[in-house]
Each structure stands twice: as C-alpha cells, then as structure tokens.
C-alpha cells in the first residue's frame, strides 16, 4: 500500500515487512524506516505534511515525524479498524471499525 506526500514530492509505502519506505517522485532516492514492530495496514498523511499515521497489525497507531525519520508516538490497545483516514477539517485521524 502507499500514499503521496502532501506536496507530491514523495510516495510513502509499507506493508508486511514492517518497513516504511519514502520514495522521491523525481529521482531514484529512497529512505527507509525499519523495525516498526508489526506489518503496516494503513497510512495517512497529516494535513501539514509533517507527520504520518501508520495503522499496524498489532492494533497500534504509530505517528512518524517525517523530517526526523522517527516514530514519535505509539498508541497501543486499539481495536482493529477497517479503514483509517486523516480528516483535515477536524484535524484528526478517523478510524472506521466496519
């Protein structure tokens, strides 16, 4: 799975290998954020483009500081959500349990 950065300069991808890959859209460079703890099931980009929310198979949300290339916050103990999306109007992460 993957998604574009707010400015379109990067594509973020992740999956079963629990590694976040940041691909530059204009070039061949890429960065990796490995050892995220569990397979990634969903990616959402914050409206300001500075943070990614990763939904993982261990029922956690990991907030990644893109500039620092580091996980800043991990929220554990969540029930599995069927979908995750960032709502720019409410400035929040919306999870659908469907």
Poorly predicted regions are: none
Q: Looking at the structure, what is the overall shape?
A: globular
Strand order of the largest sheet: 1-2-3-4
State the secondary-structure class: mainly beta
H and E order = EEEEEEEEEE
Number of strands: 10
Estimated radius of gyration: 13 Å
Largest sheet composition: 4 strands, antiparallel
Arithmetic mean pLDDT: 87
DSSP helix fraction: under 10%
Number of helices: 0
The proportion of residues in beta strands is over 45%
Give the end-to-end Cα distance, rounded to a whole number of Å.
Answer: 20 Å
Polypeptide structure, described:
This protein is mainly β. It contains no helices and ten strands. The protein has strands at 2-4, 10-13, 20-24, 30-33, 40-45, 51-56, 61-65, 70-75, 83-87, 92-96. The strands form three sheets. A four-stranded antiparallel beta sheet has the order 1-2-3-4, with no helix packed on it. A four-stranded antiparallel beta sheet has the order 5-6-7-8, with no helix packed on it. A two-stranded antiparallel ribbon has the order 9-10. A hairpin with a 4-residue loop joins strand 6 and strand 7. It starts with a strand and ends with a strand. The model has no long low-confidence stretch (mean pLDDT 87).
Summarize the structure.
The chain has 98 residues and is an all-beta fold. It has strands at residues 2-4, 10-13, 20-24, 30-33, 40-45, 51-56, 61-65, 70-75, 83-87, 92-96.
């Amino acid at each position: 799975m993957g998604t574009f950065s707010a400015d379109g300069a990067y594509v973020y991808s992740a999956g079963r290998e629990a590694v976040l890959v940041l691909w530059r859209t204009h070039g061949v460079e890429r960065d990796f954020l490995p050892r995220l703890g569990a397979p990634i099931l969903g990616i959402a980009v914050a409206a300001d483009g500075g943070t990614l929310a990763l939904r993982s198979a261990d029922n956690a949300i990991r907030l990644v500081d893109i500039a620092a290339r580091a996980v800043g916050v991990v929220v554990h103990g969540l029930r599995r959500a069927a979908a995750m999306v960032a709502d720019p109007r409410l400035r929040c992460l919306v999870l659908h349990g469907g």
